[in-house]
């Protein structure tokens, strides 16, 4: 019996980590989309790509895109994994508000900033854990389970701030939002660090594969001996943690905690970033860096609209257009048009 | 029974990809008869039913209704021709009232508003004809499945009225409920309806049906009046075994058995009588029994998919706790489930990942197999099982059924199991893969593995089993060993010997 | 008692209990004046929640509701103040636009086979964006018609005022109850929520019903926008921010199962009133802050989600 299997397997493929040829990276639709948006921005504003060095840090529109995109990018890191398990977390925007409120309230009441930061991150973890418990133990659908915190979360944040916008002048918190490190704004550094850490910790361990397996087929995952419940708890907790980080940045940026507006509607941006990044809402394969790239595409569009003088709300129209394009591309209708008809088994 | 069939299928062919699900099948349904359709899973009966009701369109052959050729677009269209269907999992609306389920889509209205009173009255009147006196305003889901089935039948008959297809309507009914349902069916038969009845309970077939058509591997084996047949004949035709047995008792049974590897003692749960079973090293325990005999339930219990209420499990004489599949995997068990697509494969993951996933789950989150290990493992088992995939990084869903099954088998071999449960490992796969899997089972036995294999293919079970457990009505009714493994013995144990026949 | 009645009864009991509790603390709350204000203040939410009820009953969700309200207020303001149209004509145009918008979303959900929350999310962005493209700033509406409507009310015994917007809401609820429970369309909505497969097999026109449901939801959101416009005399793209969440909460607290198939339009009314009660109580109390509303609503939402899981997990069987 001939065995085409072994012969057809490319033998030149070197072992892990699988290096992707740069060419395939640059032909990814997300990269092309980002390039296109940046190009349009450059046409609108010829100085778009100029980066200057001033007071020990970089300045320029490009840096601004990175900096402004960081909060959503961080949310998208956590959201990617939730969506990979076939779930969704609607509460991250509210959790941002809770985290910012916690940190701001604690520092203004005299607690040392590192403890306040730790408390804020812990609160985010707890919020995520709560979502995870609803999803795993009570088996409530993710969209419904996280809706509870989405509705109540801002109230909780206001409960913490007692309804005021709590402003602070704590250097650490402000540094998180507006400081710089190695010439880059802190949000960018934090987002990049989190992205690398998260990617490594899911890809260097088995977590990534197991999460994808749970998202692809929960029942088969059970039959294969996976402990899906524990994975889901971790994933939702991590999404809560990411939201808390993002909330700290936003609070640090405005030097205050605004329970009403911090992170408002950002959950939707984060979901959009993940979808642009190619992770399917039906769960399964995910890519954290691509979701971050998705967040950058959204921010580049925002910035482009701002510099071209349109009102910022015009963004929403563009965003909806992006969703519509993605939906049409992913729909069964267009799949039927583009399918190459592999000898797929039924 | 009149001469002219009300519904006739001639030379029906249905092809899925490269798989020919139906091969020139003829079928007729006459007014005033109950025509049973029998066959194991994969025989093509559900495909045939879907063609008769309009859910599928045939690739060849034709349908005739009262002598006129018809083409059915969908079940709704079939309904308008008078062909109604009632499915096993009742396809009504559990959240709506009984009356609304009967009248949805054709509610009488007054001044544009639905006339509730009239619906309720008509529903009560309609159901009373079926001997059902229930509160028609209550939600359908508040009633037992038997009542729901009768409601579904009432709706189907009301809307169609010529042919009624009952697709495994009794699967979840108890004996009294079955009788109640049968009374309804007999009354409809007396009214001149043609009834097509699909089930896997043979006694019910003999109880209710006038004629039977048996399908096997997409072909019609026979259509016969039931009074010319007995249970044993039917089982033999369904399983396709005309005494051409390939059993080598000398090579398998009676030989020296290894030590007891796993022992299940008094394992049981609600609705599943407790059983004892020991499987030795180097032994294949085959399970014979028809669909619905409880064979899959036993496997699920063993693997902790359904938690057992009673009983203990011992591996190498040591008690182990098996409350969920993760614990079973930790104890060295593997399970190739019956429904590959639903419970087995991770369609979007690669062949390689599908092979290493159980081992990875067993190793835990932090002991990740690196790519080199994965490639090596996948390569090794792909070669050992002859998995045909152009590339181990391609999604497993693009593979053929046989290769998918081999991938799942490879997944369990990769954890170096002590005990392997295979539920219908060769169903719906091509001949080559079939042979490869049978070869693998034999090889694993020789290597000293303990195996528990469920299969509808009688010759197959016989070919590799040291011992055969026969299941009927959720109980292990016979155990055959050595020379006792004989075709007639198995077929009769499955059918229930004439002496044991139920009233 | 039918299972789906249980959450509704729970809602009704909680409302009565909460109202009595509120009255025992703040006796002034027991008056038609307060009740009248209840209706007026929550009219737009109630109308939008009616549409949301149909969407959720069918097993979907509509995140665009708040945005459609905001868009409608802007469109109405633009038509009246800039194009000098009579308000009634402006209302008609706005309602047609909103309905068409919903129909398109429904068609996208059905034909593109995407989850409703994604499609209506795009709809939300589009409607908010569209509103701010029309006018980024708030537009005040001055028109005699508005003044007349705002001054019209029916005096209730006890000094309460049943305003025009309050009446509109009550009429919408009454018609919606008929639509949901006494028409074929209503049956089809429940059928979709029960099981889309079964519904299709039983002859429910799935495409037409889905499109109609979202068209209805957007129509009612448009009507809620008109009411909001009458209530505030202004059009602003950020009006009614987050109302979709309040509407969803009202529907769920009203006893409708978030996964569809079970529930009552009347329950939504109680859900809206319960939210109004919490708000009114907080205003009356004076020491509590408004954010408590969100927390209480969140807690209620959680309670009802868990309650529904318990009620619908395993139902009793008759034989």
Stated plainly, the CATH topology of the largest domain in chain B is called: Rossmann fold
How many helices of chain B in DSSP terms? 17
Overall SS class of chain B: alpha/beta
Low-confidence stretches of chain B at least 5 residues in length (pLDDT < 50)?
498-503
Jot down its keywords:
heterotrimer; B: 503 residues; alpha/beta; Rossmann fold; 3 domains; 6-stranded mixed β-sheet; 22 strands; disordered C terminus; C: 319 residues; mainly alpha; ABC transporter involved in vitamin B12 uptake, BtuC; two-stranded antiparallel sheet; 4 strands; 3% strand; globular
Please specify the SSE layout and strand pairing.
The complex is a heterotrimer of chains A (346), B (503) and C (319).
Chain A: H1 4-8, H2 22-26, H3 29-44, E1 52-54, E2 57-59, H4 61-84, H5 92-108, H6 113-136, H7 142-161, E3 166-167, H8 171-178, E4 180-181, E5 184-185, H9 186-203, H10 207-216, H11 218-223, H12 228-254, E6 256-257, H13 266-276, H14 288-307, H15 314-330, H16 332-338
Antiparallel strand pairs in A: 1-2, 3-6, 4-5
Helix pairs in contact in A: 3-14, 4-9, 4-12, 4-13, 4-14, 5-6, 5-7, 5-12, 6-7, 6-12, 8-12, 10-12, 13-14, 14-15
Chain B: E1 7-16, E2 19-29, E3 33-38, H1 45-53, E4 60-65, E5 68-70, H2 75-80, E6 83-86, H3 98-103, E7 109-110, E8 113-114, H4 116-128, H5 145-159, E9 163-167, H6 175-190, E10 194-198, H7 202-208, E11 211-216, E12 219-225, H8 231-239, E13 260-269, E14 272-280, E15 283-288, H9 295-302, E16 310-315, E17 318-320, H10 325-330, E18 333-336, H11 340-344, H12 351-363, H13 371-385, H14 401-413, E19 419-423, H15 431-446, E20 450-454, H16 458-464, E21 467-472, E22 475-481, H17 487-495
Parallel strand pairs in B: 3-10, 3-11, 6-9, 9-10, 15-20, 15-21, 18-19, 19-20
Antiparallel strand pairs in B: 1-2, 1-4, 4-5, 7-8, 11-12, 13-14, 13-16, 16-17, 21-22
Chain C: H1 5-25, H2 32-41, H3 43-57, H4 65-82, H5 87-112, H6 116-134, E1 139-140, H7 144-151, E2 153-155, E3 161-163, H8 164-182, H9 184-194, H10 196-201, H11 206-232, E4 234-235, H12 243-253, H13 265-285, H14 291-313
Antiparallel strand pairs in C: 1-4, 2-3
């Amino acid at each position: 019996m001939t065995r085409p299997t072994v012969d057809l397997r490319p033998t030149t493929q070197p072992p892990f980590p699988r290096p992707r040829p740069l060419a395939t990276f640059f032909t990814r639709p997300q990269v092309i989309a980002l390039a296109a948006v940046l190009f349009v921005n450059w046409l609108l504003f010829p100085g778009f790509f100029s980066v200057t060095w001033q007071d020990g840090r970089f300045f320029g529109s490009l840096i601004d895109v990175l900096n402004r995109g960081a909060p959503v990018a961080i949310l998208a890191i956590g959201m990617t994994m939730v969506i990979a398990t076939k779930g969704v977390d609607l509460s991250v925007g509210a959790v941002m508000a809770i985290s910012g409120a916690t940190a701001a309230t604690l520092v203004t009441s005299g607690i040392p900033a590192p403890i306040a930061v730790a408390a804020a991150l812990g609160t985010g973890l707890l919020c995520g854990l709560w979502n995870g418990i609803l999803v795993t133990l009570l088996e409530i659908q993710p969209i419904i389970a996280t809706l509870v915190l989405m509705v109540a979360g801002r109230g909780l944040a206001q409960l913490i701030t007692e309804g005021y916008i709590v402003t602070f002048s704590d250097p650490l918190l402000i540094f998180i939002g507006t400081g710089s490190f190695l010439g880059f704004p802190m949000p960018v550094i934090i987002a990049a660090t989190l992205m690398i850490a998260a990617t490594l910790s899911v890809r260097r361990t088995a977590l990534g594969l197991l999460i994808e397996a749970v998202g692809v087929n929960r029942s088969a995952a059970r039959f294969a001996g996976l402990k899906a419940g524990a994975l889901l708890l971790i994933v939702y907790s991590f999404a809560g943690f990411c939201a808390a980080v993002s909330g700290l940045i936003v609070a640090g940026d405005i030097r205050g905690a605004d329970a009403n507006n911090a992170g408002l509607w950002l959950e939707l941006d984060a979901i959009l970033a993940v979808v642009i990044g190619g992770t399917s809402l039906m769960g399964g394969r995910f890519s954290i860096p691509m979701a971050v790239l998705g967040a950058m595409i959204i921010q580049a569009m925002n910035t482009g609209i701002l510099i071209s003088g349109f009102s910022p709300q015009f963004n929403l129209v563009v965003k909806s257009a992006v969703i519509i394009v993605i939906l049409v591309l992913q729909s069964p209708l267009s799949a039927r048009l583009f399918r190459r008809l592999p000898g797929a088994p039924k | 029974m009149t001469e002219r069939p009300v519904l006739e299928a001639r030379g029906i062919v249905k092809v899925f990809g490269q798989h020919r699900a139906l091969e020139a099948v003829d079928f007729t349904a006459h007014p005033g008869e109950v025509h049973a359709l029998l066959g194991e899973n994969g025989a093509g009966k559900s495909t045939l039913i879907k063609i008769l009701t309009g859910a599928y369109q045939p690739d060849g052959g034709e349908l005739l209704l009262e002598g006129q050729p018809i083409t059915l677009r969908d079940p709704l269209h079939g309904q308008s021709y008078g062909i109604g269907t009632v499915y096993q999992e009742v396809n009504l609306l559990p959240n709506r009232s009984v009356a609304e389920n009967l009248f949805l889509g054709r509610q009488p209205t007054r001044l544009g508003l639905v006339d509730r009173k009239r619906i309720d009255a008509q529903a009560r009147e309609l159901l009373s004809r079926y001997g059902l006196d229930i509160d028609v305003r209550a939600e359908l889901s508040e009633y037992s499945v038997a009542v729901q089935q009768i409601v579904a039948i009432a709706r189907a008959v009301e809307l169609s009225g010529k042919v009624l297809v009952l697709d495994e309507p009794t699967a979840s009914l108890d004996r009294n409920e079955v009788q109640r349902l049968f009374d309804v069916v007999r009354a409809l038969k007396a009214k001149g309806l043609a009834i097509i009845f699909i089930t896997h309970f043979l006694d019910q077939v003999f109880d209710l049906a006038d004629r039977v058509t048996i399908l096997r591997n997409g072909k019609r084996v026979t259509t016969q009046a039931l009074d010319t047949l007995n249970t044993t004949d039917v089982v033999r035709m369904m399983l396709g075994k005309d005494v051409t047995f390939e059993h080598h008792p000398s090579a398998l049974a009676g030989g020296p058995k290894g030590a007891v590897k796993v022992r299940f003692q008094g394992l049981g749960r609600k609705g599943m009588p407790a059983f004892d079973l020991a499987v030795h090293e180097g032994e294949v325990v085959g399970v014979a029994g028809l669909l619905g005999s409880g064979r899959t339930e036993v496997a699920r219990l063993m693997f902790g998919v359904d938690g057992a209420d009673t009983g203990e499990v011992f591996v190498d004489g040591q008690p182990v706790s098996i409350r969920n599949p993760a614990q079973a995997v930790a104890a060295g068990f593997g399970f190739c489930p019956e429904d590959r697509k639903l419970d087995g494969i991770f369609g979007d993951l690669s062949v390689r990942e599908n092979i290493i996933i159980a081992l990875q789950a067993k190793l835990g989150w932090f002991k990740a197999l690196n790519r080199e290990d994965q490639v090596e493992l996948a390569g090794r088992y792909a070669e050992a099982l002859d998995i045909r995939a152009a590339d181990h990084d391609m999604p497993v869903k693009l593979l053929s059924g046989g290769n998918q099954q081999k991938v799942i088998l490879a997944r369990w071999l990769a954890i170096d199991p002590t005990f392997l449960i295979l539920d219908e490992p060769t169903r719906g796969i091509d001949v080559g893969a079939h042979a490869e899997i049978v070869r693998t089972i034999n090889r694993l036995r020789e290597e000293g593995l303990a195996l528990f294999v469920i299969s509808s293919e009688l010759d197959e079970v016989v070919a590799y089993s040291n011992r055969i457990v026969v299941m009927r009505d959720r109980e292990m009714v016979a155990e055959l060993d050595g020379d006792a493994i004989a075709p007639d013995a198995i077929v009769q144990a499955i059918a229930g010997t004439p002496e044991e026949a139920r009233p | 008692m039918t299972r789906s009645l249980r959450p509704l009864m729970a809602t009704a009991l909680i409302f009565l209990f909460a109202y009595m509790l509120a009255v025992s603390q703040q006796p002034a709350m027991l008056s038609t004046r307060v009740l009248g204000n209840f209706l007026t203040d929550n009219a737009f939410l109630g109308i939008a929640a009616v549409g949301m009820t149909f969407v959720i009953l069918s097993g979907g969700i509509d995140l665009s509701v708040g945005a459609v309200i905001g868009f409608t207020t802007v469109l109405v303001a633009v038509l009246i103040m800039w194009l000098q149209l009579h308000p009634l004509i402006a209302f008609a145009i706005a309602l047609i636009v909103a309905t068409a918008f919903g129909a398109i979303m429904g068609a996208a959900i059905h034909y593109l086979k995407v989850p409703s929350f994604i499609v209506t999310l795009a709809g939300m962005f589009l409607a908010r964006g569209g509103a701010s493209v029309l006018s980024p700033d708030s537009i005040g509406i001055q028109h005699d018609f508005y003044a007349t409507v705002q001054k019209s009310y029916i005096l209730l015994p006890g000094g309460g005022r049943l305003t025009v917007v309050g009446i509109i809401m009550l009429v919408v609820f009454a018609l919606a109850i008929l639509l949901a429970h006494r028409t074929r369309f209503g049956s089809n909505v429940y059928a979709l929520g029960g099981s889309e497969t079964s519904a299709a097999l039983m002859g429910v026109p799935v495409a037409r019903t889905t499109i109609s449901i979202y068209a209805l939801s957007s129509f009612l959101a448009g009507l809620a926008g008109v009411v909001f416009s009458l209530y505030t005399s202004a059009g602003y793209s950020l009006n009614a921010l987050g109302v979709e969440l309040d509407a969803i909460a009202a529907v769920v607290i009203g006893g409708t199962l978030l996964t569809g198939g079970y529930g009552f339009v009347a329950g939504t009314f109680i859900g809206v009133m319960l939210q109004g009660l919490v708000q009114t109580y907080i205003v009356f109390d004076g020491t509590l802050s408004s954010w408590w509303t969100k927390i209480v609503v969140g807690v209620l939402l959680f309670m009802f989600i868990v309650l529904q899981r318990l009620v619908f997990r395993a139902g009793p069987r008759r034989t």
